[in-house]
Amino acid sequence: MNTDHLDSEVPDRLYTVTGGRGDPGGPGDPALDSVTLLVAESEPAPHMQSEHADILRLCTRPTAVVEISAELGLPVSVVRILLVDLLDTGAVVARHPVPSTPQEGPRHDPDTLKQVLLALQRL
Amino acid sequence: MAVHLSDRKRPLPRPGQQALVALLAASALTAPAWSWVVFESPAPVRTLIALVGGVAGILLCAAVATAAHQAAAARIARAHSTRVSVGARILEEEAGRVVDALLPAVSQAAREGRSAQSVLARYPRPGHPTIDRLAHAVTTQVASAERRSAQDREARAEIEDEVTDLADSVLPLIVHRVRADRTSAAETLAQEFQDVREPVARLRRRVLDEILAAERRSATALVSAANSGARIQAHLTTLLAQLRDLEDRYGDRADIFSDLLRVDHNVSRTGRLADAFVVLAQGRSGRRWTRPIIMESILRGAMGRITAYRRVRLHYTSRVAVVGYAAEGVMQALAELMDNAANFSAHGTDVHVYVQEEDTGVTITVEDSGMGMRKRERRIAENLIAEPRTLATLPGIRTGLAVVGCLADKYGLKVSFRPSARGGVGVVVLIPPNLITEPRARVRRPRAATAGTPVVVVPGSGTPGTGTPPAGVPSADTPAAGIPAVGTPSAGTPAGPPPPARDAADRPPLPRRDARPGPAGPEPSGTAPGQPTGPVNLPRRRRGHTLAEAVRENPEQLFPTARRHLDPQSRNGIPTRFAAFRDAGAPPEENGRDTTREGGR
């Protein structure tokens, strides 16, 4: 609740940014979670919605969904919807975090992690 | 003596004279006869004969005198009777002439407006004095009646003229003047009025009083309508601000979020209705933006207020902005036009909105593929645009175009209608160049941690301004010169060099009111948001919040400098430090990239 809300406030409501969609749903990438990294595959085009163009500029380096959300000052749901649009046109690609599957077993030993934590706390 | 005596030749002898003459004549005959008889008679009877003869003679003389008297009286009576019958005939004839000829002629003359005396002069004067007097009296009466009637006719014509004048020119003048300056109208009009007859003046006074009263009532109604509308607007603005907070908070929960968006849309639609109401009540526009609003936001802000916003397709590449004070009005007008377009076209069809930059400003075209407008509808629509209406003078129950008309009049927008290539109507709104400006770089501040999601704090989102140091690695030790902005993490952070606006570099800028060397120059104004150059000590509040709330939330904004001295390690410094930490780890070109992004807005 900061006072520069006054200056950052914009007249467009979020549902106009998403074109009326409140839920990414649909054919988009259902696995697009908060920490998925995204990389732009193309340059922003002039006819693009400004948020799409912003995302493309932001994602020249791999950027997480939450980071985009923070940068644009938009809720994560809105960013997800925008990203689904871009993913559908192939303007960005998603790099999912490598899942730790039960077959392979945990990649990191919990004991080791605990030791590291304790060591850090002792610092 | 009423008897006409002109025809008498010789005066008749009076009966007394006649009788005397007859008596003398009889006496003259009788006396010698008696004397002779007495003288001739024998003496012894002489006395008797004298006595009898004398008596007989006297009786004879008396009889003759009586007969003569009676004869004379009879003659006189006969003559008198003749005279009377002649007079009666004359009287009858003249009366008939007066009744049959003179009176109709006089009344005819009176009807035709001629003088009754002249008519009387043309006719022979009646012989009978009574008739003569009668004719004179009647003529005088008719003449005076005629004079009175002429005066009355004249007065009636004058009153008719005055009433006609009142209806045709004075009343429109009164209405116009009362509308124009309602308080002083009564006095000035009273001085300007021409003198008229009393009844008309009374009528005029009464009408003026009624018009003034009606105008006062209408003005009061408008003001109270505008006040209630403004209150509704304030509530809705608060509601929208709260919704935006909720949307930020539940941004990662898709189910709640989509519900919130639906509520948001409904509140925005209600807001448009309240806005229209206030505009028609001649109130002030609901919100005022403190900075230019870019065209994309204008279009989306307008589109978000209508029911069928999903059917609106925006086509724009323009990156110009509308000056803050006019942005709300332009959005309202566009919203009404988009709503009309959506309402008057089939549900499955799209409403297309095009933006074009021209030398004369920026045109926004709203096209639908509906039924189009007939000539009469179009004339009504153009009339609504040309003559701004209020709630009191609204010609019908439809308010959309009346709102557009009011706003066009207020901000100098030009609105025209034409057939659309898509079959429906195309409405072209020309925003004049004095309302167009360069967009100010948008402040992208990270959302507050209330969202409950990890927040990466990024510097460099300040706006370009003169006096900021060139790009480098900003640190916590280089706060903005001057008084720090109130409690904003990014506001105190100096920005990189102002990047050339991407679009401005692509094409020559329009001639604008605040024409600047658009490409590559840093904005000369140091009044970029969040970076006040002067001692701006006024507390600032968020829209939809009262000042008291704003001060309660952030008391230090009342005493920013003192607070900063007392608490240099306040939490305000921490995000800046994090930002510095992050930037230090980034390669140098990232700064440029970030700011380019900002400049692109």
Automatic annotation (TrEMBL), chain A:
- Native organism is Nocardiopsis terrae
Task: Output this protein's name.
Answer: DUF742 domain-containing protein
One Pfam family in the UniProt entry: DUF742
Q: Where is the composition biased (Basic and acidic residues)?
A: 1-12
Specify where the region named Disordered lies, as residue ranges.
Answer: 1-31
- Point to the regions of Gly residues compositional bias: 19-28
Please name the InterPro entries in this protein's record. Answer: DUF742
From TrEMBL, chain B:
Q: Which Pfam families does the entry mention?
A: HATPase_c
User: Bias regions of kind Low complexity — which residues?
Assistant: 448-476, 484-494
Region Disordered: which residues? 442-601
Q: Which UniProt keywords apply?
A: Kinase, Membrane, Phosphoprotein, Transferase, Transmembrane, Transmembrane helix
Signal peptide from the UniProt entry = none
Keyword Transferase assigned to the entry: answer is: yes
Q: Does the keyword Membrane apply?
A: yes
In its UniProt entry, what is this protein called? histidine kinase
Organism, as annotated = Nocardiopsis terrae
